[in-house]
Amino acid sequence: MAKIAQSQNLPADVMHLIEQLERHCLAPDGSYVSKSSFTELQLAREEMLRERTCYLEAMVGDLLSCRSSDAVYGEAITMVEEYQQTVLGGNLGGVKDIPGLHSHLGQKCSPEVYLSCLILSFHFFLDLTF
Description:
Elements: H1 2-7, H2 12-25, H3 35-65, H4 69-92, H5 101-104, H6 111-129
């Protein structure tokens, strides 16, 4: 933004104000959100990633220990079916499968979690059949 200000020959005090905003107030990714909002969003994303990782590790741990493999397999299949039904319903309504669609359609997890469940259930199925 400061480069734009310099190319437009703005007064020095306006250029200084723009530089101060960029340095202290705006997010480093250039999205023009406040730094505090950007930081909170990053922390929330990191927390969600940690929770998702813990959840998937627990599912894998249960599968590997075979304590309740049928229950884990059933849960994974249920989640995959829920995802398919939700996306199908969204696509029938003219909504494309875009990032953020899962929360808009009422899903609790991101598509990555559902994909991981599908992969886990597929591996479990292979272990049972071979």
